[in-house]
Amino acid sequence: MLSFSTEFPVPETVIADDVCEAVREWISGSPHTRFNAAHLTGLGSGEVWDAAEGLEFIESIREDAADACTVAIIYRRDEEDFEWITTIVFAAQTVSKWISVRVECEPRHPRAKVPAARKPILIRTLLRKLGGGVDGEFKMAVAPIVLASSEVELAARCINGDVSSYLPIVYVSSQFNGHYAVNPNNLAALLFGMAHVVVEPNRAFSIELMKAVDGINVYGGTIALYWPEGGGRRSFFKRENISAGELERAIFEEVRRSLVNRRPLLRCTLAAVKEQKSRRHINALKDAGSKAVDEYVSAFEEENRAKDAALAAAEAEIVRLKGELRHIDAQSDPSGGLQLDLGGERDFYEGEIREIVREALNAQMSMVAPDGRRQHILYSIVLANAVPTERERLRDQIKMLLRDYQSMDGRTKRELEQLGFSISESGKHYKLVFQGDPRYTFTLSKTGSDFRGGRNAASDLCRLLF
User: Source organism's superkingdom (predicted)?
Assistant: First the structure.
């Protein structure tokens, strides 16, 4: 069972021996191994090398050519309940150098429960010793990529799937108070080697970005996972009952699952290394004039040509489908609900528009013929589209916050900003704007002389917003 998979670029200065040294350090430094540094000195040397120690086995396959070098390392370790298989492939070509890491956990009996997947320490070891390379527009780093105010166009390309990077992009939008739902530094460190963490600088940037992408961007603290080649997005909302750390782990798990299911780069697979090895041996026999293998070679090459043609056709179909998927994404409801044109509106909180549409459909059911086609369709849609209870939470929080309002102290201001209000002074009153939309502007007195003032303000807010 494949539990972890990723591929990432490394600097151009990295060579195969550097990768082997990093793998040696990782294995010999593990508390679970019987191998020591002396056992692993031959790792990566020659075409094929292997070693065994107790229930552990390691082998390397290396292919060197004038313009390319590939090394595959397979490390197996048996435990009482599981067999762990880690495969590392280093592919160095003229244009770039990439590393692939795949971890499999195979249960040895039906009762064995596969442990929760984690990021392998090997990833940290490789990136610490080798460093991260350049992936399209982005240089891999343990720190997040904080966009400058002038980089709206780059953010738009991230969201539209028009960047040339290979790794996915985790986009962190700014909350209305300028903070973030997660710690961008912690998230970037957690996803280093798996995804780029791109952070927008402030709320004003988000508003400019909205114009550039026709309102499909996430905003107000929401975080989204985007793929460079398109393929939709996965959004993460910050909820009251979830901590920043828990949200970071949820994002990690989504990225991990996505990478496990993603088709790996062909050059970074064990099969590609073995194919290069077989091709070199056949070419050597041909160059030596061996007649015994001529017929086999002819059949092998014909089979390969057919395979290459089929692969090229499959690649072309994948490109076509990606383009079609991106076209569908561009027409989709950005809230992830029904395929409706929302005009200039968008969610102010998770599930807002879906909930409003659902309630309207529910109300409409009493106005159509009983047991008729329309009622059946409306009932089916209402039943199938459950929505989160974010509206109730926001409404209750506003009522509780303003129930005994007397003045705008630090706690009240901070909590209002966390709910999505921007606050400014305007004469004798405070001006509150919800989610940066001037259509939803409210006033709050600076001194609560009337004990009912806060409750009345909360009632007005909730009536118009919720």
Answer: Bacteria
